[in-house]
## 1
Amino acid sequence: MVYDIVIIGGGPAGLSAAIYASRARLKTLLIEKNGCGGQITVTDLIENYPGFNDGINGFDFAVKLEAQARDFGAEIMYDEVTNVENGEVKKVITVNATYETQTIIVAAGTSVKKMNIPGEPDFIGKGVSFCATCDAPFYRSKDVLVVGGGDSAIQEALYLSKFAKNVIVIHRRNELRTAKILQEKIASHTNISIIYDSVPKEILGKDSIEKVTITNVKTNKDTDLKVDGVFVFIGLVPNTLFLSNLVLDKNGYVVTDENMNTSIAGIFACGDIRKKQLRQVVTAVSDGAQAAISAQGYIENQNATTN
């Protein structure tokens, strides 16, 4: 079987592409490594997506997108893509199978960036977390450290404050990079404090985390903080290791034009994996819709040329 479109990744961009492609009656396969939804499934509240005045839980939003894609006829397969091959008929190679397709939409998203400091690898899953929604209940009435100063870090700090006794946010700059409305919210929480101009240096403990050594980037002075857990939100890394032929920027993001065309005709990229200024759910679903329309146009042109 040759698909019209194979979509790699089941986050908001991939699911949006699947909705538009399958609704256009194109034979559509979406391949997702873990579970549909991507990063938003661990987001407690999405409050800046148009149409949801009171916000919506990230997991609930992902469930709705997946159901909508399936209802229009998209196939969804759980597997890991290891390579893509260009040709008259393109191939998407996974751990378990090879799929042939006229077009490919890459929507593989991003993964969380690690701090790469001593102690971090030893305590991942045992005190070091990248998901407050997943792990906050384990830190009820305890002290936790949140690393980062962007929207994700502050949103997660706000969520942690419902459980933890004290939430300490550490940020390498002298001011937060998050939206003003989130800064206003965090200022109203008495159990959240912020340490500026500082970075974690080492995580220490035996069977569990006991303290974190932090360094002031201006004075180089080290200080030990007694905490029970560390939540890391310092950025994202694009999942592009399996893409050997596409043009990437210096940070590893896929370079596209405004229509989601990559450097190879018939292969498109959308969502957080592509080079762009704003990475939000609303821009991801927009990218996905455009990628599907561009793929449809490519298929129609190829068919017209063949006939």
## 2
Amino acid sequence: MNKKFYIIFIFLFFCFGSSKAQTRSELELQREKAFEEIAYVDNILKLTSQEKEQGINELRALGRKVNVRESVISGLNEEIDLLNSRIEINSLGIEMMEMDLEDLKEDYRKAIISSYKVMKTNPYIVYILSAEDFNQGYKRVKYLQQITKFRRKESELIVDLKNEIEKVRDMLQSDLMEVSQLRSSEQLQANLLKQEQSNQQKLINNLSNKETQLRKELQDKQALAKQIELAIEKMIAEERERNRGDALTPEQMLIGEDFADNKGRLPWPVERGVITNKFGKHQHPVFKYLTEDNIGIEITSNGKTVVRSVFAGEVSAITTIAGSNMTVIIRHGKYLTVYNNLVNVSVKKGDKLETKQIIGEVFSDPTNNNVSILKFMIFDTQYLDPEQWIAKN
């Protein structure tokens, strides 16, 4: 095997290994966070099922759990693919190095035999003393030293290559064991997913039998959502009317630019929670022929849950909406964030806020085992999808 190919292999191996190790580390971190979210959703579902029949919000929470479980399985499969790729490279590397080792051994064997023949017919001392002059004798000594050094290097290279082969073999065995463990984990997660999908379908079937009740709940919710939307739009319009003709101050412009620059990295408005209702138009979780259209997202938590500003800004408006508790609007330059279904609001209009500063608490529903649902919105010239702005959990 040409040594050039061996060198290329070593280069590719280390480049591949370092980049994939980082990717695997990221996948493992994502899996750890996913398991934390699954455990959190489990806790919400267990608590809500203790006191009442599960409803739409519980179905959405279960749906979120199914989605996260699917992402875990997908991540496990990605890890398996990465390890299989490394196993292929390691196997190829061992094959190349073993061929190279055989070539080195053969070269070394030939060199030893050749040296032995020379020594037998013409010992080193005779070879040196038979020189015509001192100069030639010195050159013969250096030549013999180079031959000895070459043989020593050859023997060292053989030993080093053997050690390298053993290292790669150990890594190969370790990767094979990890693949086996990951496949076991993947099968376990697949079984759990199947059970959760079954539970999800049972809950859908149970809720489908209550179509009249659910339709009434949906109509009430849509009416309330419309009322909230109109109230918020009125507040925004009033706030814009007050500031008509007034350009944003340099400080407000800078805050707005910073807010935009942090898209996808904003902190959550609550420390822990699960998104149980997404932004925009989507199918009803039970009746597929019905659609919902949300101007924000709903984040479900349990028990006392403090709400915090997702970015530095100024409290623009605070109001009470019948059936939906209190709403706080915070200005961040040209952007507005809206926090609905609050109680115990601790800020007032005009207050300057820092990122993550507490503004109140989510209403905790005592009739639903203290489930807390925050409605969170982001507004520019139109409503934006908050999930695209806040950091991935």
